Amino acid sequence: MNNYISALSVLTASVLLSPLSMANQPWSQDRQWLFGDWNGERTQLEQQGYKFTAALMNQSAYGLDGGYKDNNGFETTSQLTFGANFDLAKIAGWDDTTANIIVTKREGKSLTNESIKDPRASQLGNVQEVYGRGEIWRLTQAWVKKGFNDNTVQFKIGRMGLSDDFNASHCEFQNLLLCGGQLGKSIGSIWYNWPVSVWGANLKYQFAPEWTVGLGVYEVNPDNIKTASNSDGFNLDMNNVEGALIPVELIWKPKLALFNGLPGEYKLGALYSSAEANDVSVAGKVHDSKHSVWLNAQQQLSQQGADAKRGLYVSFNAVINDKDTTAVTSTQQLAFWYKGPFDSRPNDSVGFGLANYVVNDRVTDRQIATNNSRGYVDYDAFATDYVPVQDDELNVELNYSYQWSPAIMLRPNLQYIYQPAGIKAVKDAWVAGLTMRINF
């Protein structure tokens, strides 16, 4: 990890101090990849159907004020990603067929876990979204996708994360709940986001120009989230499958006159899990299923000049979970970002978002009852057997994404966490963060 940070520091200094770099330098502003085009071989391979990717994401967070420890802690976490995509139509003559494989490795610590939240409480948010699921190598994707009838029907099978194809959302932020799909943040025991993969299959059918429906079947297998060794990240057996998770989603992609014909995407979905789930309020009670519903909406609100990508965007995401079996009954997210805020910086963006976790009142009541049985009436910051009483948690982030080149992105950000882990007695936290992404 220290090697990653040192390399990033040197690279960042080079970027900021070299505005007149030549195009053949790794830090030049038109550099597609940090390691270049391999003397043209990379582009040639892609034209032949072989596309290779390698990237490093680093997210640092510094506690400005508040939190459980109320100190100026600093933590950093990173993710390495190596991938290959194969256009099998070009390679093998298989029309409308692609295959993909991605391997990832995460390292580092979370400021939320180390300083911001009460360590006796279960985690809700995280100020570094790239943290989690263990410091091990993982097979994150290994799938094949086949299109039929001019790709109006697509079938996909293999190893994948559930939010790759359902409840998917854009990520313009460092805060966990403001980044990507929401379900994995509240029902992570069965819904696995990146970097975890599971065996699954899904079918997407575009039945009208603006309308698509999707249906999937995925395993619920706790072996997939084990982190004891690197072998756990490459577990391919299905010996301990506990059930099936079945999502269905309706997608609408209109260009509404209300927004001057600018594109939008709206998703309504639901899931059913056949795996047994524990009741959150009654010890020992078990339910034979679990369910959730969600809404994802993204709309471009304005366009800057002739560039269709520049302008103001808004997204709203909401999840409602099964109240009998889920500690977080719902999440809501509202985010705005403006792409190309300056003519001289058409690829930069400014982002502002708010995201909320709503803790199940049955969980809160059970925590209060547990403390009363142990003689605790008020919050006790030192007792090891005290159970912190959790309520809602609100996350806010303001950031600026500085796209130096297609190869290098820097995203300084300021975050505010209201009631960390939903605990009223813990001081609200202010955090300064920096995301750095490098495409090799």
Write a structural description.
With 440 residues, the chain is mostly beta strands. It has one domain: Carbohydrate-selective porin OprB (Porin), CATH 2.40.160.180. The chain has helices spanning 2-17, 41-47, 88-92, 111-116, 183-186, 361-373; strands at residues 50-67, 74-87, 97-108, 137-148, 153-160, 198-208, 211-220, 243-252, 264-273, 277-278, 286-287, 290-300, 311-321, 328-339, 349-359, 393-405, 408-418, 427-439. The strands form two sheets. The chain has a 16-stranded antiparallel barrel with strand order 1-2-3-4-5-6-7-8-9-12-13-14-15-16-17-18. It has a two-stranded antiparallel ribbon with strand order 10-11. The longest helix has 16 residues, at 2-17. The chain is globular, with a radius of gyration of 23 Å. Mean pLDDT is 93; it is low at 1-22. One of its GO terms (molecular function) is porin activity. Residues 1-23 form the signal peptide. InterPro entries: Carb-sel_porin_OprB, OprB_Porin, OprB_sf. One of its GO terms (biological process) is carbohydrate transport. This is Porin, OprB family.
